[in-house]
Amino acid sequence: MTLRIRVAELLARALGPSRLSGDAVAFVATAGPDRKVLRLAKIDPKARQWKILPTPEPITVNGRDAAAFARDLAAGAPGLARIEMDGRDWIEAYGPIGKFGEQSWGLVVALPYSVVDEVRGRADVAVQTAFSDQLRNATVFAGIALTLAGLAAVFAARSLTRPIKKLHDAAMRLAAGDYTVRVEADGKDEIGDLARGFNRMVPAIEDQVRVKRELDIAREIQQHLLPKAAPSLPGFDIVGQVLFCAETGGDYLDFVPLTVGTGAGMAAVIGDVTGHGVGAALLMTSARATILAAAEAGANGGELMRAVNRQLARDAAGGRSMTMLAVVLKAESRSIDWMSAGHEPALLYDPTTDDFLELAGEGIPLGIDAAWQYTTEKLTLPENAALVCITDGIREARNSADVEFGMDGVRGAVRAARG
Q1: pTM of the shown model
Q2: How many CB atoms sit inside 10 A of residue 265's CB?
Q3: Rounded CA gap, 242 and 254, in Å?
């Protein structure tokens, strides 16, 4: 009896019941070679004092740390484990208090894991204080290790989130158009690499935005050069449209007034510079200026074509050239003169016979040979005929099934619109 009282007193000195929270439990346990856990003493929750059990009380423990918990008790090793005990989820800190015979005894302090969740914000201080006051042995070291791990995690999280927050703020400023924004890039880790990459990216984006704005201006200028509306010429119904697939392009359409014999006439000109983008647009603009200048000087259709060829042979670079089809419409005779410089064949549709005639020509693209002589073909138009001139963008257009429109599609569209 004296030994039991003494043990209880020693336990009370080491861990007084009044120092435990209402949800915490403490007990002395041991484990045999079979790893069955036995409770030898515990704090009586009603009397709030240590109680030595007359016979060891088996404890049912489960969970991923249960085997390690039993093994540590049997070996007299300290530790920290999360286990299911008596049907509840606990976080348990334990350490050796002595060895009796072949069995090691351990002091166990357990707290419901739900309480840990509720006081997570104060866990560092609470765990360190509780363990430093309650356990003077290996349990203290387990608590300190847990505290240090938490502090390291907080420090690491702050070290990671702070530069990311700066990158986020810089990205928002960049999105708002501030191209002077930069971020500190002193780190040697991946975050530092990301910051340095961001700083290199900003000038590149600024250059791209500047180029985009300049292309928008170029597109606006090029659109202004195109005819605003189809002209009026007795005996003809005329319509024309240009749709670019990029900001700028090399497709060309114009209607140039001419004097044909003693009557009025007009040259309908359609062309296509090789390639796309600004280079093609500049070459197209050069061709347009040459055509208008030659027309104002009194040139006829053939002279227009030869003047453009000579000019482009001087201006074209990098292998660029331009196909062109010029059709001179004669109001008094309702006939045409036409010249082709390697352009897509025009289609002449006669609704009376439902036949198509291709106006192909044998001329080479403009800008290749300055001395090339382009021949003029003459044709009288049937009654209510339709003359359709296109660039290859129409023929090469594809639908959602990746099927090319083709010349058959062009013929079908013309035939469907015969009325």
Answers
A1: 0.52
A2: 21
A3: 10
